[in-house]
């Protein structure tokens, strides 16, 4: 410690490295063998987790009910946890018990090393591989390679074949909205009269014919067909010439599926007529064709053409005139 008025220190003595403290595995072959068996068990847990994930994807699909979804998500998530945890814990335990733990100091050199230094670096890498003990521990090497080789299956299998879902993109181009289908409240399914929609009010809407869909496919069809219904003062509404007949007395209906990555767009700000996507803050102007005014979305929300039937209920004129949701490879716009 410098005293008041003394000259500042210009250098410090190198304290050096602390003495190396050998581990049990360094001095006791039995401890080293025990650590090796523990690492093999951890890699085996990873292998079991990967296989379990694939089996869960195949035999326990999400289904259409909350309970089946919870069970499927739990089994898949638990399998992925075991798969990743096993690899990570095995790698950490391996490094702490079997790999070389001697601290080494390498002096700083110019950025471009000499050929001799580079050759020495290769030798160091070879020495490190030897220190890890993988060359003389066949069971450990086999467990590590097997767990690492199998782990990608936990991600790849759900993306291929029927296990990953249907790749028929034609199903994404249409919904079950048809001419004359009533707009009903979600989830009650109560038909909506135009007279019940006041300026500034918002309705979450599903098609009346949703109950006619097979129960196995009902959730998928609902996910594509959900709509947000809003009534504005007609003088605030800006409509393109080809869409002037798509609304009714200031009532407009737009898909709730964000055109960015498909999150539900359901946060409506009455004063600005803005719809906000809670996932990535894409913002759409309901008063101006649901055009994007902020955020990563690149396209307006698709509009559902609506009209009123003889009883005063709001009904669809047709399906959406464009695919709903985010882009896919066969979408033209």
UniProtKB/TrEMBL annotation:
Keywords: 2Fe-2S, Cell membrane, Disulfide bond, Electron transport, Iron, Iron-sulfur, Membrane, Metal-binding, Oxidoreductase, Respiratory chain, Transmembrane, Transmembrane helix, Transport
PROSITE patterns: RIESKE
Subcellular location: Cell membrane
One Pfam assignment: QcrA_N
Primary localization class, coarse: membrane
Domain Rieske: 224-315
Spans through the membrane: 39-60, 72-95
Lineage: superkingdom: Bacteria
Cofactor: [2Fe-2S] cluster
Region listing for Disordered, in residue ranges: 1-30
Mode of membrane association: Multi-pass membrane protein
UniProt function note: Iron-sulfur subunit of the cytochrome bc1 complex, an essential component of the respiratory electron transport chain required for ATP synthesis. The bc1 complex catalyzes the oxidation of menaquinol and the reduction of cytochrome c in the respiratory chain. The bc1 complex operates through a Q-cycle mechanism that couples electron transfer to generation of the proton gradient that drives ATP synthesis.
Protein family membership: Belongs to the Rieske iron-sulfur protein family.
The protein's name in its UniProt record: Cytochrome bc1 complex Rieske iron-sulfur subunit
Annotated organism of origin: Cellulomonas chengniuliangii
């Amino acid at each position: 410690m410098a005293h008041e008025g003394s000259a500042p220190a210009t250098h410090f003595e190198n304290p050096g490295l602390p003495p190396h403290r050998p581990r049990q595995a360094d001095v006791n072959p039995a401890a080293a063998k025990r650590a090796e068996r523990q690492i093999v068990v951890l890699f085996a847990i990873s292998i079991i987790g990967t296989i379990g994930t694939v089996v869960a994807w195949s035999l326990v699909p999400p289904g259409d009910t909350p309970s089946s979804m919870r069970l499927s998500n739990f089994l898949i998530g638990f399998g992925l946890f075991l798969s990743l945890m096993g690899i990570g814990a095995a790698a950490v335990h391996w490094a702490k018990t079997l790999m070389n733990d001697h601290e080494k100091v390498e002096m700083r050199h110019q950025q471009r090393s000499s050929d001799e230094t580079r050759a020495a670096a290769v030798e160091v890498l070879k020495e490190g591989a030897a220190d890890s003990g993988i060359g003389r521990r066949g069971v450990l090497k086999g467990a590590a390679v097997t767990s690492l080789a199998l782990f990608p299956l936990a991600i790849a299998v759900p993306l291929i074949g029927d296990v990953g879902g249907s790749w028929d993109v034609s199903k994404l181009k249409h919904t079950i909205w048809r001419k004359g289908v009533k707009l009903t409240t979600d989830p009650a399914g109560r038909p909506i009269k135009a007279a019940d929609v006041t300026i500034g009010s918002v309705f979450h809407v599903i098609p009346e014919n949703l109950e006619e869909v097979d129960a196995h496919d009902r959730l998928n069809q609902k996910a594509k067909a959900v709509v947000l219904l809003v009534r504005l003062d007609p003088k605030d509404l800006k409509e393109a010439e080809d869409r002037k007949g798509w609304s009714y007395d200031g009532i407009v209906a737009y898909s709730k599926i964000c055109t960015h990555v498909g999150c539900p767009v359901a946060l409506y700000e009455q004063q600005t007529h803005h719809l906000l996507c809670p996932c990535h803050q894409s913002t759409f102007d309901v008063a101006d064709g649901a055009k994007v005014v902020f955020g990563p979305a690149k396209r307006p929300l698709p509009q559902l053409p609506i009209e009123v039937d003889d009883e005063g209920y709001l009904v669809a004129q047709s399906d959406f005139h464009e695919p709903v949701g985010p882009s896919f490879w066969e979408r033209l716009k």
